[in-house]
Design brief:
Layout lengths: L1 E7 L5 E7 L18 E4 L7 E5 L3 E7 L7 H4 L6 E5 L2 E5 L2 E2 L12 E2 L2 E6 L9 E5 L8 E5 L2 E5 L11 E5 L6 E5 L2 E2 L2 E2 L3 E5 L8 E2 L12 E5 L2 E5 L2 E2 L8 E2 L3 E5 L4 E5 L16 E5 L3 E5 L4 H8 L5 H5 L11 E6 L4 E7 L9 E5 L2 E5 L2 E3 L2 E2 L3 E7 L2
Parallel strand pairs: 4-29
Antiparallel strand pairs: 1-2, 2-14, 3-15, 5-34, 6-7, 7-10, 8-9, 10-11, 12-13, 13-14, 15-18, 16-17, 18-19, 20-21, 21-24, 22-23, 24-25, 26-27, 27-28, 28-29, 30-31, 31-34, 32-33
Length: 382
C-alpha cells in the first residue's frame, strides 16, 4: 500500500511525498534498521591502481553564489542534506549543523526540513525559492536523482532514525534501489539490500555483502551497469575494534559478485580515504571522487586516541580532509588526479551532477564546522 500526499509549496511547486511503508514490504523492519550511515545507489547499474598523473580531462572549478536566506541557521551551511536535480533545477532539503554554539563547546545539533529549488544554467549565481518542507527535519539520508524525481532513503532526526523511503516527484519511478553498508540497529554493517521499485510487493532482498570491514559513509557510484564502493569506517562497538577502509569493490548485478578494484591514492603514492567523501559519474564512463576524512587522524579519533574538546579545537588544516579531485577509469582499473582543490576538502558534502556540471554542496570543513559554499566543477574535454 502506498499513499501520496501532494501539496503546493510556497512557490507554487507541487511536491509529492511518496512513502513506502515497510510493514507492507517483504521484511517489515529492514528499513527501520537503516540509520544515517547508509549510502544508496539507484539503477540497474552500471563499474581502481592510481597513476597519480594528470588526466586528459580538464576541469574548471567555480564558486557558486547565492544560498537560501530564509533561515539564519541554515544560512550558515549544513552537511548531509538531501540534494538532486529535478527537471533542470537543483533541489536541496534538510541537513544539519551547529548554528549557535560549536560542538567543541557542547553545542546542540540542529536539523532542518525546508525544501529549496534553483534553476541550473551556465550562470554562477543561484536564485533560490523555498517550495515546501520535508515531512520532518532530517539529515544523513541518501538522495538519488532520477528522470522522475528524487528518491530519498532513510536518514535521522534529532530524536530517531527514519523508516521511510519517499519520492520528491510528480510521478512514480521504476528501476532498482541498492542500499550498502551503514549502521543497522546501531551496529556498523557490510550488508547490501535491493528493492525493485517497479515491484514493491517483492520487498527488500538481501544481496551479497560487500567484502571486508563494515562500512559507514562509503562512497558509492553507479557506472555502466556496475556499482562501485570505496572507503567507509566503523566505530568500535560490541567488542569489535574500530576500523577505517580505503579499499574498493565493484558489484555486478548480473553475477551478484564483488570484485576488488584499485585503491585511490595521491600523486605521492599515499592511500586516500574516501569515507565521508562523495562520488559521481564523470565524462565518458569515468567516476569522479572528492573529499573524505584523513585515514590516520580519523582512525585515531574512532579509537579514542583523539577525543573531546582537544580533538575538536584544531584549525581546519590539521584534520587533512582529502583535497584531491580523483578520476577512476573502470576500463583500466586506474586512478588519475585532476589536482588538489581546497573546495573539495569536505566531509559530509553532497555532489550533484547535471549536463557536465558537478555541484559540491556544503559539508564539513572540520568536525562540527559546516560551510554554506556551493562550488561547481565544469568538465572540459580535449
Amino acid at each position: 500500500m502506498r499513499w501520496c500526499n501532494p501539496f503546493l509549496g510556497q512557490a507554487g511547486w507541487l511536491i509529492c511525498f511518496w512513502h513506502t511503508f515497510y510493514y507492507l514490504l517483504h521484511h517489515e523492519n529492514m528499513i527501520r534498521k537503516i540509520i544515517y550511515g547508509v549510502y544508496a545507489i539507484l539503477g540497474m547499474m552500471t563499474m581502481a591502481a592510481c597513476s597519480g598523473q594528470s588526466d586528459a580531462s580538464e576541469i574548471s572549478l567555480e564558486k557558486m553564489h547565492g544560498f537560501p536566506t530564509e533561515n539564519t541557521g541554515f544560512l550558515k551551511g549544513v552537511s548531509s542534506l538531501y540534494a538532486g536535480v529535478i527537471e533542470g533545477n537543483l533541489l536541496i532539503a534538510g541537513g544539519c549543523n551547529f548554528p549557535d554554539i560549536p560542538v567543541a563547546d557542547g553545542g546542540k545539533k540542529a536539523y532542518y526540513r525546508d525544501i529549496y529549488i534553483a534553476p541550473l544554467s551556465n550562470d554562477t549565481a543561484f536564485e533560490w525559492k523555498k517550495i515546501g518542507q520535508l515531512p520532518q527535519a532530517a539529515a544523513y539520508g541518501v538522495t538519488i536523482s532520477t528522470e522522475k524525481g528524487l528518491i530519498c532513503v532513510g536518514g535521522t532526526t534529532a530524536t530517531h532514525s527514519l523508516s521511510d523511503v519517499f519520492l520528491l516527484s510528480f510521478q512514480k519511478v521504476g528501476h532498482s534501489l541498492y542500499i550498502v553498508g551503514g549502521n543497522v540497529n546501531g551496529i556498523p554493517s557490510s550488508a547490501m539490500y535491493m528493492l525493485d521499485l517497479s515491484d514493491l510487493s517483492g520487498g527488500w532482498k538481501r544481496e551479497t555483502d560487500i567484502p571486508g570491514e563494515p562500512r559507514v559513509q562509503p562512497v558509492c557510484v553507479a557506472q555502466d551497469g556496475k556499482l562501485y564502493v570505496w572507503g567507509g569506517f566503523a566505530p568500535a562497538v560490541e567488542g569489535h575494534q574500530a576500523s577505517l577502509s580505503v579499499d574498493g569493490y565493484m558489484y555486478s548485478p548480473e553475477t551478484k559478485e564483488w570484485s576488488s578494484v584499485a585503491t585511490p591514492y595521491d600523486a605521492e603514492g599515499n592511500e586516500i580515504s574516501l569515507g565521508g567523501g562523495m562520488g559521481t559519474s564523470f565524462g565518458e564512463g569515468m567516476i569522479l571522487c572528492a573529499g573524505g576524512v584523513d585515514k590516520d587522524i580519523f582512525l585515531k579519533a574512532l579509537q579514542g586516541i583523539y577525543a573531546g574538546k582537544e580533538y575538536l579545537s584544531h584549525p581546519v588544516e590539521w584534520y587533512r580532509f582529502n583535497r584531491n579531485l580523483l578520476l577512476y577509469h573502470p576500463q583500466t582499473d586506474k586512478w588519475t588526479t585532476l589536482g588538489e582543490y581546497e573546495q573539495g576538502a569536505r566531509a559530509g558534502a553532497v555532489i550533484v551532477s547535471q549536463d557536465g556540471f558537478h555541484y559540491i554542496i556544503n559539508g564539513e570543513l572540520k568536525p562540527g564546522i559546516r560551510t554554506n559554499e556551493i562550488n561547481r566543477i565544469k568538465e572540459k574535454r580535449r
